[in-house]
Specification:
Elements (H helix, E strand, L loop, with lengths): L2 H7 L7 H12 L4 H20 L9 H13 L19 H20 L12 E2 L8 E2 L15 H11 L4 H12 L4 H5 L6 E2 L4 E4 L11 E4 L2 H15 L23 H14 L9 H12 L4 H8 L8 H6 L5 H20 L1 H5 L2
Antiparallel strand pairs: 1-2, 3-4, 4-5
Length: about 350
């Protein structure tokens, strides 16, 4: 997405030369279009608030940024009520607010580098040696960390039951999304030469990953391998050309690469028909990584498999797998309870003699 397109989408960017210059740099550096688009949106919304209040964004202070945060926290959510407080029923999610503020913070970092400011009014949480409570300095807005949602066994079986009636392409995509814990972009960007049927592995190219840096090779199951073999035969009836693995079968886009949005619609429909409206293109990834944690995989192995740059991102799945510790906890508590009862009855003392 070019800088000109961004200014057409958000005209306020064209009224602020430094903002347009900063975004142009991100575009020229070849950053992911979705990343640049997200930064442009966050900065545009901030600049609109500054214009409304008559504030020069280059000279704005923390109080001015706080007004922007209040605006984000109180505006109606176009996707429905998003509970920020128990009785609020309004406001953008914490993650969305954080995303908007990242754009503003990076813009001020740019202004500092250009010598137009001395400090950043947004700032971020950072470790400072010598500070109390572990040296953690809180960011402008506290970051809430929520465990990802995953379906229970019955919900997952319901989705699979509906998926059985889908065409071979959709079944292969769902199987690979789960088996290899693929993100939506990684799945839709797979190419025919990324597959290695002999070893049942596939290559996730660095340019298709979230961080655009970490290429990885991940395995898939024998059952998924059988589905892939059937799909490749089917794909040959659509196109024999090498390239992207998954192709559209619609009349309008026949043999064209399958878009992210088409796959999202397919998954959305599966979830609705299965009575699991929370089901999304990322659910299979969450479920796969949680299942790996349940199997006892080490944290570093899960991070490598998932393509996480840091093991911190993988910790959520270790926490999610904690549901399987309930039986162990119950067993342990039964033992402790029995021991305490024995103490009350005196049988423990007799047993120790």
């Amino acid at each position: 997405m070019g800088a000109v397109v961004l200014e057409e989408k958000w005209p306020v960017l064209g009224r602020h030369d430094r903002a347009a210059e900063w975004l142009r740099i991100w575009v020229d550096l070849g950053r992911a279009p979705r990343t640049v688009d997200a930064y442009a949106r966050g900065l545009a919304e901030y600049l609109e608030v500054c214009e409304r209040d008559g504030i020069d964004p280059i000279a704005a202070n923390k109080a001015n940024v706080a007004v922007f945060v209040r605006e984000l926290s109180s505006r109606p959510n176009r996707r429905g009520a998003n509970v920020v407080a128990l009785d609020s029923g309004a406001g953008l999610s914490n993650a969305t607010i954080q995303q908007r503020l990242v754009a503003v913070r990076l813009f001020y970092d740019f202004l500092i580098e250009e010598g137009l400011r001395e400090s950043n009014p947004v700032g971020c949480g950072k470790y400072t040696p010598g500070r109390r409570f572990g040296g953690q300095q809180r960011g402008l807005v506290p970051r809430l960390s929520k465990l990802p949602w995953i379906p229970d066994e019955q919900q997952w079986m319901s989705v699979l039951e509906v998926a059985r009636g889908e065409g071979i392409r959709n079944r292969v995509m769902l199987a690979l999304a789960y088996d290899a814990a693929l993100r939506r972009e990684e799945l839709c960007s797979l190419r025919t030469d990324d597959l290695d049927p002999a070893h049942r592995t596939l290559r996730v190219r660095a340019e298709t990953t979230k961080n655009h840096r970490l290429e990885r090779v991940v395995p898939y199951s024998a059952a998924t391998g059988a589905l892939i073999s059937s799909y490749l035969v089917h794909r040959a009836t659509i196109s024999r050309a090498r390239g992207l693995l998954f192709l559209s079968e619609s009349r309008r886009n026949h043999a064209q690469p399958l878009s992210l949005w088409t796959w999202s619609k397919v998954v959305r429909q599966l979830g609705l028909e299965a009575g699991v409206p929370q089901f999304s293109t990322h659910t299979t990834r969450h479920l796969c990584l949680t299942d790996r944690a349940r199997m006892g995989w080490e944290l570093h192995t899960i991070a490598t498999f998932a393509g996480h740059r840091s093991t911190e991102s993988s910790l959520a799945y270790i926490h999610l797998s904690g549901r399987d510790l309930v039986a162990k906890l119950a067993s342990g508590m039964d033992h402790i309870h029995a021991w305490r009862v024995q103490m009350l009855t005196g049988t423990a003392a007799q047993a120790s003699r």
